[in-house]
């Protein structure tokens, strides 16, 4: 009886120690992952010249064993506002709410660089931002007829509604002409193309001249870590884009 009592007591003590040390390990693991997330956010902010630190979330548990292996299973990066290069005169286009999910992130021994095997993500471009690409200045499309794009909005069913304003023989048409357009991604370029052509006061205008107004494209280059455009779709407040990449450099 005496031996059984002490055995049970010893087991209870052992269990308590296991719980305590297990709790300490979890605490240490969470402190370590929090520190690593902050460090990674700082490096990304510096390397991508961001106005604010991005959100970095390292998934998976435990973190410390992943560090020992030199590879993280899953890292999520969120950038609220990102100024992407357009390849034209140093201009940029604002990308909103860029979220990228990185898989298989391997880092160097001194943690100065990190590369993800694959990355997928989403982001958006507002219609107001995309409108800067369209021809907003009146342009002659036929003798006595000028036209320009004055607005972009959601046309439903994945289409963009393009508002075109026209002036015919010196008289501005009382209302814009609306046309539904398709939006696609071709390489690093977002293309907007009218499904049907608008009519300007019954004037016969060559299709190429009309499309010079209604159709436009926006190159989006220099996304973080070398990720690239994959797909685009018109939505309520702007164009939603998906991105993907391989061998994406997070730092270094």
TrEMBL record:
Domain of life of the source: Bacteria
One Pfam family this sequence matches: LmeA
Protein name as catalogued: DUF2993 domain-containing protein
Organism of origin: Streptomyces shaanxiensis
């Amino acid at each position: 009886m005496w031996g059984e009592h002490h055995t049970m007591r010893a087991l209870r003590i052992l269990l308590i120690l296991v719980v305590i040390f297990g709790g300490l390990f979890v605490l240490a693991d969470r402190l370590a992952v929090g520190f690593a997330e902050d460090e990674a956010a700082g490096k990304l902010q510096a390397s991508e010249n961001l106005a604010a630190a991005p959100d970095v979330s390292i998934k998976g548990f435990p973190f410390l064993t992943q560090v020992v292996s030199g590879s993280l299973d899953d890292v999520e990066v969120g950038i609220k506002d990102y100024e992407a290069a357009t390849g034209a005169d140093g201009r940029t286009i604002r990308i909103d709410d860029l979220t990228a999910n990185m898989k298989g992130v391997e880092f160097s021994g001194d943690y100065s660089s990190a590369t993800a095997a694959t990355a997928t993500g989403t982001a958006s471009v507002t219609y107001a931002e995309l409108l800067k690409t369209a021809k907003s200045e009146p342009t002659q499309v036929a003798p006595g007829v000028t036209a320009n794009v004055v607005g972009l909005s959601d046309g439903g069913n994945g289409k963009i509604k393009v508002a075109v304003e026209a002036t015919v023989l010196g008289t501005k048409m009382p209302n814009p002409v609306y046309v539904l357009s398709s939006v696609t991604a071709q390489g690093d370029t977002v293309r907007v193309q009218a499904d049907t052509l608008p009519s300007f006061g019954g004037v016969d205008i060559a299709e190429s001249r009309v499309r010079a107004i209604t159709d436009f494209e926006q190159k989006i280059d220099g996304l973080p870590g070398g990720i690239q455009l994959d797909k685009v779709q018109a939505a309520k407040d702007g164009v939603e884009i998906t991105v993907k990449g391989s061998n994406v450099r997070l730092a270094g």
